[in-house]
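ARCHIVE CARD
CATEGORY: sequence design from structure
SOURCE FIELD: tokenized fold
FIELD CONTENT:
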């Protein structure tokens, strides 16, 4: 397990190193440590070790983790788990989660960038007394990670976002022309992020979920000549806010489709969804789109008590459970005793539970529904 964490951290460091500098000696300390540990592991397993850093990187894309010379618990890795995407050689979400495993990322500024930005947004919106400003800001990051110059300019006319205008300018950097093909930028039709052009006319999406669904559909093409500068939300926020936020928004659509009243990120993001039933019964929902169930279990904690609710759930997209059998059981084994009451459901299970509750005989008051919460 320490080897995987070290290699994952090294890959994340290399991902932030541009050009050929990534493979020039001396390597960053965590990269050299990863190479040394990998060589020892392969030798101990009686196998030919990687002869260079480049070969180790290639193995991280080609060899599933279950085939590495490691002694791991049965639920530590899945049959198709790799640390690097085979096409782009970029770290997978699982790689990022392994990188964070020891809670000592090699570059804290990069690792905590998303937290710093969201905390700054919260502070500015709170100081203005504008909860709607934070909700709209968060929605912007989830639903619109790509903006043209005209669209970015238009946001400065949205006075709801006034407390975070300057912050928006900082977190949407210009996109280089290398992201385009034939003068056009392509936006993923599933997640809304920019697609990366590949050789042969194909496009690559950075989100694991999109890649598992097949070739990414092009949602829209942005002609550079007409749109001018194109901006994209910076990578830490795309990974930690946009990606999980898409699962939150999808669940919102499903629940509102049942006729339920849903508030997104209530109480300045105390949790993700506040769901109110016709009888006043309230659910608090936190959506967690994590690849590794044990890491999610270790992060488990009770849902914040405000705004008040009657029942609380953690929810994971059903595709995560389908990809890794025993996901919920692994989560339960890993969660700390203080979070023993945290219930993890799939989005399908929560939707079915909501539909069943709506089908029950109408309850008279919220107090009546509170009496049945424990049951």
């Amino acid at each position: 397990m320490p080897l995987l964490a070290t290699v994952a951290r090294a890959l994340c460091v290399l991902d932030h190193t541009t050009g050929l500098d990534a493979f020039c000696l001396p390597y960053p300390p965590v990269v050299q440590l990863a190479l040394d540990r990998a060589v020892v592991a392969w030798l101990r397993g009686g196998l030919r070790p990687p002869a260079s850093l480049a070969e180790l990187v290639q193995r991280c894309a080609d060899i599933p983790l279950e085939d590495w010379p490691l002694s791991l618990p049965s639920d530590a890795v899945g049959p198709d788990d790799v640390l690097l995407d085979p096409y782009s050689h970029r770290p997978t979400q699982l790689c990022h989660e392994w990188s964070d495993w020891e809670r000592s990322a090699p570059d804290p500024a990069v690792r905590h960038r998303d937290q710093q930005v969201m905390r700054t947004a919260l502070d500015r919106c709170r100081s203005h007394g504008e909860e709607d400003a934070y909700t709209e800001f968060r929605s912007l990051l989830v639903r619109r990670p790509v903006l043209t110059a005209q669209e970015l300019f238009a946001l400065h006319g949205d006075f709801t976002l006034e407390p975070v205008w300057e912050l928006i300018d900082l977190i949407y950097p210009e996109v280089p022309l290398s992201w385009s093909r034939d003068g056009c930028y392509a936006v993923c039709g599933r997640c809304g992020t920019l697609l990366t052009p590949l050789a042969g006319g194909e496009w690559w999406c950075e989100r694991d979920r999109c890649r598992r669904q097949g070739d990414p559909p092009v949602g829209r093409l942005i002609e550079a000549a007409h749109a001018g500068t194109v901006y994209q939300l910076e990578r830490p926020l795309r990974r930690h806010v946009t990606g999980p936020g898409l699962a939150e928004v999808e669940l919102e659509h499903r629940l509102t489709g049942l006729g339920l009243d849903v508030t997104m990120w209530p109480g300045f993001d105390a949790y993700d969804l506040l769901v109110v039933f016709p009888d006043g019964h309230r659910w608090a929902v936190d959506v967690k789109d994590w690849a590794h169930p044990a890491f999610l279990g270790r992060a488990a904690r009770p849902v914040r008590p405000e705004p008040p609710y009657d029942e609380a759930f953690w929810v994971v997209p059903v595709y995560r459970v389908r990809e890794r059998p025993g996901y919920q059981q692994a989560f339960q084994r890993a969660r700390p005793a203080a979070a023993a009451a945290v219930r993890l459901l799939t989005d399908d299970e929560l939707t079915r539970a909501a539909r069943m509750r709506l089908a029950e005989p109408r309850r008279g008051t919220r107090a009546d529904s509170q009496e049945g919460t424990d049951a």
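CARD ANNOTATION: The CA atoms of residues 277 and 358 lie 8 Å apart. Residues 235-256 form the longest helix (22 residues).
SHELF: design records, drawer C
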